[in-house]
Structure formats: C-alpha cells, structure tokens
Amino acid sequence: MKKTGILITLLIAAVFVVSCAKTDMPKTEPANVWNYLQDQNYTDWQLFPGTTELYPGQSPHGAFLTSYINKKAAKSVNNDEFAYGSIIVKENYTPSKKLAAVTVMYKVKGFNPDGGDWYWAKYSPKGDAQAVGKVKGCIQCHSAVKDSDWSYLKSEM
C-alpha cells in the first residue's frame, strides 16, 4: 500500500510540474496567433502607455492607431527589453476611422535573433494573414529603433 501511495503522489507531482511548465502562448503560425488574440480578447488588454484609442498614426500603419499590450509586455515595458511572450497589437485605421488591418509584434525566444526575436504579423480585420513571420519590411523599418527593442512606441516613452 505504501508503494501505491508513493507512486500516486509522484504521478500527481509530475502532472503538476508538466501543467505548470506548459505555456499558453501561441505557436508562431498565423492562425495560432490570430486565434490566441481573439481568445484572449486583446481589445480588453491595456493600451500601450502614453497612447489613447485612435491616436494619430502614419504610414505604413494607418491614419489612426490603437495599440494594446498583453500583461507580459506591460510588466516589462519600462525595462530595456520586452520579456519573451510580450505581444503588441496595433489596430490600423483609415482616415475615416475604419479598421483596415491588425499588426502584431510577438516576442519569441530564438525566433529571429537578427530581428530582436520578434514574430511580425499583419492581418485583415477578419483575420486573414497578409504578412507573417520574419517580415522584411517590418524588420527593416523597426531596425531604426532596435535600441528600444524594435518598438517605436517604446522609443517615444
């Protein structure tokens, strides 16, 4: 009976360790990231510090922007770098304030060291992936602020 109790205790401990080690972060695949954002109701996330809803934007993002950050990004926004697992979601609006695209920066350890380990994505308002992964245009543009962990918003803080 003692052996059975010990085995059950070890099994429960192993299940606990595995469940705690699991990450709820999405894999770097377009549908996974989009579905994660929808499941997490990203529009309920905190706005990027210093921004408001529909603040003035510029090309290539849009005339107006709304930028959200997840909890990991919020906790590390004042650090030199964002924590792995940080997500920045930028809604891109037309001059008439119609949602045109949703752009995403998702920091994934080892994903792309030459691009700050950011996974870049652009989606239509319905979630159709338009550009994802190691997006050359995103990396080239954001390299101008790589000292601010590739974030223009962080560089303005």
TrEMBL record:
Q: Where is the Cytochrome P460 domain?
A: 41-152
State the UniProt keywords alphabetically: Signal
The yes or no answer to whether the keyword Acetylation is present is no
Q: Which InterPro entries does UniProt cross-reference here?
A: Cytochrome_P460, Cytochrome_P460_sp
Fetch the CDD domains from UniProt.
Answer: cyt_P460_fam
Which first-to-last residue range defines the signal peptide? Answer: 1-21
Spell out the protein name for this chain.
Cytochrome P460 domain-containing protein
